[in-house]
Design goal:
This protein has 126 residues and is an alpha/beta fold. It has helices at 23-41, 59-71, 86-98, 111-120, and strands at residues 2-4, 13-18, 44-51, 76-82, 102-106. It has one domain (2-120): Rossmann fold, CATH 3.40.50. The protein has four helices and five strands; from the N terminus they run ββαβαβαβα. InterPro entries: SpoIIAA-like, SpoIIAA-like_sf, STAS_dom_sf.
Length: 126
């Protein structure tokens, strides 16, 4: 399931992923919220707090995630992935090299630092 993180800055589409993540989560929540932020701000600042294992994402969810990335390719500004999974952190940091915009991983205890970075492009001290 994906939910919106309510305390996110206005210019950040921020989501919390828990349990099983489905195609419907993307269709009903993520994609409309991302479109709203791009329409409002002309760019996408995106945060995903990953509180589930990657194998909990259904195939439909992965496909929607890929489509989200491709559809909004020119709008990506800053993306933070918040997780304690080292493999996901490493992948996120490598992904930053091939995608437009900045991609950065943060450990779970630094959620508010990640939100601040998404909003401003700067980090606060942890």
């Amino acid at each position: 399931m994906i939910t919106i993180i309510p305390e996110a800055p206005e210019n950040v589409a921020a989501f919390n992923a828990t349990g099983e993540v489905t195609k419907e989560d993307f269709e009903k929540l993520v994609i409309p919220r991302v479109k709203e932020k791009i329409d409002q701000f002309g760019e996408l600042n995106y945060l995903l707090y990953l509180d589930t294992d990657l194998d909990k994402f259904t195939m439909g969810a992965w496909l929607e995630d890929v489509l989200l990335g491709i559809t909004n390719l020119t709008h990506w500004n800053r993306t933070a992935i918040v997780t304690d999974k080292e493999g996901v952190q490493n992948f996120t940091d490598i992904f930053s090299v091939v995608m437009p915009g900045e991609f950065k991983s943060f450990p779970k205890e630094n959620l508010y630092n990640a939100l601040y970075w998404c909003k401003n492009g700067d980090e606060v001290e942890a």
